Each structure stands twice: as structure tokens, then as C-alpha cells.
Q: What sequence folds into this?
């Protein structure tokens, strides 16, 4: 009728050509109905992805739990602590750095205390194997540690009963001792219900007064298991008992966990200067901060995560090949449908996208199923007694990554079948069968 | 006469199969006007399907020009042809080509999936509904193909074809899979849609089907053999004797029955 308006109407219709939200909704809806109609086949196809995602999710959950546990344990020990050890450098002539030049000296502890602004406290710790005697017991070869009062702060072990060492104890080299609970039990010195306080013990034949009981350390992680008996005496006293060979280390604490890194650098600087080391000389000591252990654990954990990632990569690859196979079957089964879709106006790009969406829908559903199973596994991990996995949980990044990877597998392995579908000639396709 | 919406000029289609060249169409000139109902007839291999695919923009000619509604579609790219098919052409096939898992309404809606200009969700639904109502299936909206008779399936397919108010409705042997009663029903539907202003082209080898059209184009060996009104065609048809004999037999049978 209206000849003039007809072309302009069609012209307007031609504008804004592209795929709409309706296309995506329809395509996903059709993908879901396709998957639902072939339930068994779809499930078997997605199985590789389900298993892959489930297992990696469980591994990541377990690692996350372990990490949280370990880090909180480190945290309780305190990230502000530092230790200084003697260390003979490798790859240098033994003669240049003999042991005498490497081992720590009290003067160095004093220098660190005086010159490192980020160090709040430091104590030398010297081990003396000695025979220990109480009224009833005699124990040979027990470790007796010589310490400064700052030791309590530096290693985080308080006095539970009695008193810590005072500066006077050090200065006047009083023969006083601190013990731990295990030592009280082993030496049977809790005779008057005082928990050992006020008792006398003989160390290497000298009489010491027990003035305090220190708490047992929690730092089991670092191998400082103190279920054994421990005895501490003022460093100045221990110093007098030292003969030629002895082993000494320093325990120090930084002003805060944030300054631990800085404190470490200061200690290294002061130690090098004390020892008169030239710029190209190696360190003859080693400063260990707790964050080193934390970092070590973290890199171990990420190593395990990477291995788990590799495993999941392989199962996704296997799953992806299954997806490709099933999509090729689907394309060939639906050749006439593709011909029809093209006849009613689907472009090659629309067909490509539609089949890609179908593959992605399948893999993402598989990924979600895998996540659900993995989450259930993570929950059951938390109930395993003694596995230290109470905090096992699937982190958000693992959820997102699993979905993204599943979708990626759909795109990568659905691409070839979808491309094949998009290239079909509508006339040929409608003649198929 | 109304202006031509289809103009074919020297359309040729050559297929190469190995060393052999097959001339499926050898220079076809054809004009079809707005609101015509045309039958394309011819023996097997005469080039009907090739011509149909050309007219339906599924295929491009080896040479020649095709103007559809004033636009030179023979020079268009694949994606432009897809857009033309989506908006200007409706197809009806012999074997219906409905999607088995979709309802009648969803099947009718299918072309809109590839349209960017069909409006919102409501508009799309309503358009598909009104197309179903036009073919008399307003009460079968939620039925799936396996719950429909052959005639009903073809009605759904016709609803899908007229959904976009196409410039031409193309049907390739639309009654080939139907019994004679259903054939009559579908032809009546085509006639009604034609009366509503639709241009229709039907490829058929059945004279009964051609008899419902206003114009009959006969092909032979890739060329137009004749292009006549249905009445004229009936007189010169090589099948006319056969058709008259059939009519006589039918009349005799009816007499005997009475
Ligand atoms: N894709 C093709 N490849 C090669 N030859 C073809 C192709 N399509 C049709 N032909 C040939 O073209 C001629 C016309 O075919 P067609 O248009 O299908 O005729 P009709 O539909 O009238 O039977 C036939 O000889 C057929 O073999
Ligand atoms: Mg044919």
C-alpha cells in the first residue's frame, strides 16, 4: 500500500543489528533443555570437570584450613621475634673464618641492644650441659641456659610463679635459678606445696636458689618442644662456668611485628660492624626472623596448590575432550535444526555463539556441581579429629577460579564443534539425513 | 498491475561436481508482484529447488541480478542475506522442521531470537501468539510437535513463516507429507493468508496445489517453459488430460455412491 514508507521501515529495521539479551536468554534456555533432555549423556560428559573441580576445591580447602591454623600458631609465637646464630659461611677458606671468629659474644648482644633502635630487648642464650642435683634426685647432662632478664620478653615466656631475674641478679652474679614445670616434677622439688619455689638445687656442685617457675613454651612448631626439664641461670653466672667450647645464640624482640624486618637489617648491620667485616666479606652469623618461617610455609603451601592445579588441569583437559566429542555429536544430530535456524535468519556468528554457549553452560554446570561436592568434602574434612583442618574452607577466589576455568574449558573445547556448526550451508543442512 | 517486488534478470546457477558442470538454472527472467500467489512447477531436476533457494536468499546466483523490494540481494554478503531472510522471507518446508522440544509458541518465536528489532519480551510473545491465532492454533500454544497432527504442525510452521510479515512466503512442497483432506485444509489457509495481502510462492508438482494459485510458472531444464495464469495453464497443461480423467473418475464414483 504505502510504497514510500516500506523501504524506510525496513531500513530502520536493519539498524542496530546484533545479538540481543533475548538471544542469550533463549540460547542458554535451549542449552539447558538440551542438557536436561540428554541427562545421562550430559552427566557423563561433565564428569571429568565435576571430578576435577571437586578434587581441587577439596585440596584448596584443606590447604586453606592448614594455613590458617599454622599462621595463627605462628601469630601466637609472635612475628616480632628474631634469633641470631653463629654461622660459618660456605665456600670460603676455613682459615679465614675459623669457628672462634663466628661464634657469638656477649659484647655483640650488648651492642645490638645499644645500637638497634628497633630492638626492644635481647638476651644471649648459652647452653651448658651440667649435672643437676636436688635433695633426692641426680640428673646428669641436663641443659642449663644462661640468660638475661630480657629473655622472658624475647622468647615470650613469662614467670608463672615466683619472680624473673633482675638486673641485680645479673650484675652481682647471684646463684639463683628459674625452672619449668617439667624440671619441678623431675627433680621432685615441690616438697612444701610451694611449687618448687625457695628450694635449693645443685648445678655442677654449686648451690642455686629456685626463685621462679617459667611457663612452658607454645612454640612447638619450631621444634622447641619443652616438655623436657629446663633450668635457667643468670648469664653472668653461666659465663663463669664456660670452658673452651660453648654454643651461644641471641633471642631478641623488635618493638613491633611491623618493625621486625627493619630490626633484622639493623642487627645485621651492627653485627657486621662489630666483627669488622669488609663489604665483600660474607656474613659470619645468621639472623632468623619468624616471618621467614611463615614465608617458607606459604611457599610450601603454594607449591602444593600448584601441584593440585596441575592435577585439575589434566582432568579439565580430559573433561574438555569429552565436551568436544559430545558437542560434535550434537552438531551432527542437529544439522537440520542448524539449517532451519539459518533459514530463519541466524548468522554464522549467532550459530557459533549459540553452540559455544551450550558447551559453556554444560561445563559451568559441571564446575558448579564440582564446587558443591568439593564444599561438602571440605566440610567433612573439618570433622576429622586431629587433622588440624577445623578451618578448612573453600575461599571465594577458588570458587571464581573454578567457574572461570570451567567456562574456559567450554569455550576452548566447544570452539571447534561450534565453528563447524556455524560453517554449515543452510541448503545442505536442510537436506541432511 | 502492482509493482514487482521480485525481479530476476538472467539468473543462472552452475554447479561444478568434479570435472562436470551442471547448469541448474540457465538464465531465468521473472517478475513477481506484490500479493501474487505463484506456483512453481516442473519435473524433477528442472531447477525448482535451486530457484526457490535463490528467491529465498539461501543461495546466490552464479550470474544475473535479483532485486527484492528494490534492493539488489544478488550482490549481498552472507550476513546481509541472513538479515533479509529474517525480516523479509518466510519459509514453509515439506517436513515442517519444527524443534521437537519446543512448544508451538516457542517454535513460532524462533526467528525473533535472531532479530534485534523485535521489541521486548512481551512484544515478542504477543507477536508469536497472534501469528498462531492467524493460523487457527490459538488453543495449541503450549503443545509440543509430538502432540500435534501433521496439519497442525504445518500450521505452526506457517505461523512461524508469517511472524515477521515477510515480503514473500515461500513454501517448498508444503503438502507433500499430508493426506488429501489436510492438504485441502492447508491450501485453504494459504489462500486465506494470500487474501490478507501476503505474496506467496509455492513449489509443487501437484496440479491440485497449483490450481489454488493465481499464476503458474513451469520450469524445464533450468529455463522457464511457461508463465501463465492458473486458468490458461490449466488449458495447456500437459497434465490436463490426466486431471480431467481424474475428475471424471471422481464424479463417476460419487454417482455410484449416490
Ligand atoms: N548442490 C548441488 N550440487 C550439484 N548439483 C546440484 C546441486 N543442487 C542441485 N543440483 C543439480 O541441479 C539441477 C537442478 O536441481 P533442483 O533445483 O534440485 O531441481 P528440482 O528441485 O526441480 O528437482 C539438478 O540436475 C541437480 O542435480
Ligand atoms: Mg527439488
A:
Amino acid at each position: 500500500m504505502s510504497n514510500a514508507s516500506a523501504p524506510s521501515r525496513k531500513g530502520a529495521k536493519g539498524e542496530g543489528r546484533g545479538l540481543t539479551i533475548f538471544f542469550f536468554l533463549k540460547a542458554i534456555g535451549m542449552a539447558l533443555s538440551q542438557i536436561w533432555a540428554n541427562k545421562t549423556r550430559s552427566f557423563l560428559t561433565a564428569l571429568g570437570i565435576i571430578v576435577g573441580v571437586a578434587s581441587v576445591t577439596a585440596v584448596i580447602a584443606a590447604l586453606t584450613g592448614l594455613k590458617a591454623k599454622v599462621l595463627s600458631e605462628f601469630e601466637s609465637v609472635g612475628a616480632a621475634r628474631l634469633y641470631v646464630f653463629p654461622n660459618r659461611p660456605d665456600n670460603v677458606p676455613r682459615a679465614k673464618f675459623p669457628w672462634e671468629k663466628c661464634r657469638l659474644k656477649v659484647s655483640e648482644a650488648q651492642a645490638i641492644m645499644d645500637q638497634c633502635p628497633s630492638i626492644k630487648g635481647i638476651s644471649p642464650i648459652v647452653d651448658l650441659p651440667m649435672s643437676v642435683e636436688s635433695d633426692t634426685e641426680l640428673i646428669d647432662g641436663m641443659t642449663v641456659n644462661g640468660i638475661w632478664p630480657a629473655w622472658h620478653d624475647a622468647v615470650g615466656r613469662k614467670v608463672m610463679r615466683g619472680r624473673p631475674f633482675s638486673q641485680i641478679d645479673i650484675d652481682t652474679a647471684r646463684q639463683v635459678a628459674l625452672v619449668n614445670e617439667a624440671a619441678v616434677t623431675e627433680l621432685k622439688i615441690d616438697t612444701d606445696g610451694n611449687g618448687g619455689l625457695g628450694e635449693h638445687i645443685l648445678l655442677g656442685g654449686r648451690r642455686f636458689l629456685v626463685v621462679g617457675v617459667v611457663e612452658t613454651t607454645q612454640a612447638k612448631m619450631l621444634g622447641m618442644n619443652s616438655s623436657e626439664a629446663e633450668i635457667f641461670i643468670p648469664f653472668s653466672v653461666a659465663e663463669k662456668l664456660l670452658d673452651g667450647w660453648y654454643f651461644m645464640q641471641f633471642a631478641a624482640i623488635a618493638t613491633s611485628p611491623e618493625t621486625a624486618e627493619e630490626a633484622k637489617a639493623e642487627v645485621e648491620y651492627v653485627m657486621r660492624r662489630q666483627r669488622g667485616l669488609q663489604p665483600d666479606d660474607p656474613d659470619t652469623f645468621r639472623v632468623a626472623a619468624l616471618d621467614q618461617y611463615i614465608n617458607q610455609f606459604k611457599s610450601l603451601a603454594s607449591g602444593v596448590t600448584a601441584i593440585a592445579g596441575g592435577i585439575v588441569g589434566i582432568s579439565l583437559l580430559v573433561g574438555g575432550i569429552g565436551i568436544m566429542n559430545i558437542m560434535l555429536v550434537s552438531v551432527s544430530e542437529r544439522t537440520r535444526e542448524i539449517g532451519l535456524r539459518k533459514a530463519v535468519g541466524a548468522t554464522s556468528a549467532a550459530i557459533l555463539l549459540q553452540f559455544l554457549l551450550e558447551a559453556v553452560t554444560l561445563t559451568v554446570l559441571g564446575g558448579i556441581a564440582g564446587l558443591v561436592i568439593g564444599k561438602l568434602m571440605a566440610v567433612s574434612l573439618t570433622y576429622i579429629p586431629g587433622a588440624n583442618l577445623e578451618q578448612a574452607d573453600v575461599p571465594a577466589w577458588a570458587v571464581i577460579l573454578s567457574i572461570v576455568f570451567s567456562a574456559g574449558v567450554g569455550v576452548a573445547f566447544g570452539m571447534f564443534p561450534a565453528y563447524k556448526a556455524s560453517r554449515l550451508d543452510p541448503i545442505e543442512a536442510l537436506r541432511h539425513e | 498491475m502492482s509493482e514487482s517486488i521480485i525481479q530476476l534478470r538472467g539468473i543462472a546457477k552452475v554447479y561444478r561436481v568434479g570435472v562436470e558442470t551442471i547448469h541448474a538454472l540457465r538464465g531465468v527472467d521473472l517478475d513477481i508482484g506484490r500479493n501474487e500467489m505463484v506456483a512453481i512447477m516442473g519435473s524433477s531436476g528442472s531447477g525448482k529447488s535451486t530457484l526457490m533457494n535463490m528467491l529465498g536468499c539461501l543461495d546466490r546466483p552464479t550470474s544475473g541480478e535479483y532485486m527484492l523490494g528494490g534492493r539488489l540481494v544478488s550482490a549481498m554478503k552472507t550476513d546481509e542475506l541472513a538479515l533479509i531472510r529474517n525480516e523479509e522471507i518466510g519459509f514453509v518446508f515439506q517436513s515442517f522442521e519444527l524443534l521437537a522440544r519446543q512448544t508451538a509458541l516457542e517454535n513460532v518465536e524462533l526467528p525473533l531470537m535472531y532479530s534485534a528489532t523485535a521489541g521486548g519480551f512481551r512484544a515478542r510473545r504477543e507477536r508469536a501468539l497472534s501469528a498462531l491465532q492467524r493460523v487457527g492454533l490459538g488453543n495449541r500454544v503450549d503443545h509440543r510437535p509430538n502432540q500435534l497432527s501433521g496439519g497442525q504442525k504445518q500450521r505452526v510452521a506457517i505461523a512461524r513463516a508469517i511472524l515477521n510479515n515477510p515480503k514473500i512466503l515461500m513454501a517448498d512442497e508444503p503438502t507433500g507429507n499430508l493426506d488429501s483432506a489436510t492438504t485441502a485444509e492447508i491450501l485453504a489457509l494459504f489462500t486465506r493468508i494470500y487474501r490478507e495481502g501476503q505474496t506467496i510462492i509455492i513449489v509443487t508438482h501437484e496440479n491440485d496445489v497449483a490450481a489454488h494459485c493465481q499464476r503458474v510458472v513451469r520450469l524445464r531444464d533450468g529455463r522457464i517453459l511457461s508463465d501463465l495464469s492458473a486458468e490458461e495453464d490449466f488449458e495447456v497443461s500437459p497434465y490436463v488430460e490426466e486431471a480431467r480423467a481424474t475428475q471424471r473418475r471422481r464424479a463417476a464414483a460419487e454417482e455410484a455412491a449416490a
